[in-house]
Amino acid sequence: MPPTTSKKTWAKNTLAMQLAIVTLLSAAPSADEQHISVYSPAAIYTVPVLERAGGAYVGLLELLEPLGRVSSQTDGRHWTLWYNSVEADFAAGKLRAKIRRHDFDFTAPFLIENSRGLVPLNSLSVLLPRFLGTTINFRESARRLFVGDVGIQTSFRLDASNPPRLLLNFSAPVNPSISTEPGKLRLVFKRDPVVSPGSQSITFDNQIITHASYSENNGNAELDVAATQPLTASLSDDKKTITISAIMVAAVQPTPAAPSGVGTGPQNPMQAAPARNTAPAVHRVLAVIDPAHGGEERGAALTGTLAEKDVTLGFARLLRHELEIRGFAVTLLRDADTSSTLDQRAAAANVTRAGIYITLHATSLGGGARVYTALLPVQGTSNGLFRPWNAAQSPALPVSRMVSAAIVAEMQKKDFPVRASSASLRPLNNVLMPAVAVELAPGGDGIADLTSANYQQRAASAIADAVVSVRDHLEVQP
Amino acid sequence: MIPRHLLIGVAALLVLVVAMGIYLRQMRRRAEEIERLATDSLPVLPPALGPTETVTLYVADDDAGALRARSAQIPLPGGRQQRAEELLRALLRIYQQPGAAHPLAPASDIRSIYLVAPGAAVIDLNAAFADQHQSGILSEQLTVNSLVETLAINVPGIQRVNILIEGKTRDTLAGHADLSDSFDVTMIEQASSQ
User: Fold this and answer.
1) Long-range contacts made by residues A43-46, C-beta under 8 angstroms, separation at least 24?
2) pTM across the whole model
3) CB distance B53–A114 less than 8 Å?
């Protein structure tokens, strides 16, 4: 290639890159991305909805791609699409197209953009059966498209025992996103073709779980359950049943004053013997605390000199003390600057057959704390003697989430900014018993909080109180 | 007088020469056609100067500890794989701006993305991406969630995503987020919405 041409090409590419960066930086944030959810026996997926010429459009190729063999060809203003054996011809800016050699009329002009054909959203109900040869149910306002008979039916049953439980039964497995807020538990079905249970709102004759409502919006279905007490949800029956029950938080013994060594920082472990053991002998639960990292594996560099491994060890010693004075037996997976592999940590925790596993981390990002449970699906416990190593935590997840919710509640009582989340984190995934990870982040005083005995003491006390509140759900050591 | 058998031999040779010529001509045409088709099917470069497309990027915010959906106009090629790579490179450019809410090292890059049927994608990151990534559960999980969700929302049909570093599996991204297994898109979406 001659040098002049090369220079031109280089200049073109540079200009293109600059244009791309400028357009990217000037993009306006979108709080709520618009899309439609497509549910079919072949695939469940979402397709973005585009605003064009004052109307809503979707890419026809993207819509059909997961459902069969699709190809397209652009010739000037004409766009031809092949879906399996169906051929369709479209023209940019025109209202009329030919599908299987028959005319089809759009309500708004067909568009071509980057060799992609865009069709008006409100034409899908009539357009798609021409390609798919099956019935479809498109709920345009809810942006949900059902191809064939794929809807999942829902039924409710309230068990008015104490505490009350609401059983949601589904005709097929579901995997909703579950979140809680004061007075409400929300199930959002993003990828499940859940359909309305008949009535949009159901009122229960119960003082704790009062009513449930169903709604659909932007490709999602949502079930909200209202209650006067905090709620927790667990999946069972191969994910066909969701049990929503009130969290009965046990009365927590008042935390005794910290021993004299507390003020000297996390590197000074609790010297005093357990002040008192308030639990009866038959309720002796073993807690395994895992201070993350150690040895040459330093974890995050919180400052130029402070390593995550040192903060986690000091914090673990404080938490051990707090749990011991509440009647728990406690094992630390490391009580010095030693290293173990993730598999060794999981194996060490599993052989103890403990009631709970808590791994401690620290970060310089964010504020307060984060409580994580494993990013795994919940599975039944009847899988025989063997469990997959990477998903050993799955059967214990409902209780793990209960522990997580309790820790969040207790930390909030102590004015800790805290959030619960899920993370793909080992050895959390490999632990058999209920397990959570707590990542301590700086408070109002910045990074100095991470080494503050007072700050760590409050966090450890909140975690210990939370573990006490769910003690009845943890397996007891013989 | 030329012997009869010699005439027949010469005639046969002439026929053979003509037939070979025709055959060679056909072979040459076929080779040209194959070459033309091969040229036509070469990967198309991104239409950098062509029309742009609106996409949704899930951008991590360390302070909020969450992803934020952001629409962006970027030029995208037509092929699914090239489209996926350009999408994630656009996402990386946001993280590499000064003052980014979730900074990544300037040398971080997407080596390649493989879309393997059915519904699985493999993101191959370069070594700098992992080696210079901030260590921490929140930071690492936000990066993973951002990559997976951006890919899944813009490339329909992806259900599972694997992340490799320099073409190889690695235990963790930077000491925390587990990369040894594939990520389920639904699970990631649920984690992000918490």
Assistant:
1) A43/A67, A43/B119, A43/B157, A44/A191, A44/A192, A44/A193, A45/B156, A45/B157, A46/A219, A46/B153, A46/B156
2) 0.58
3) yes
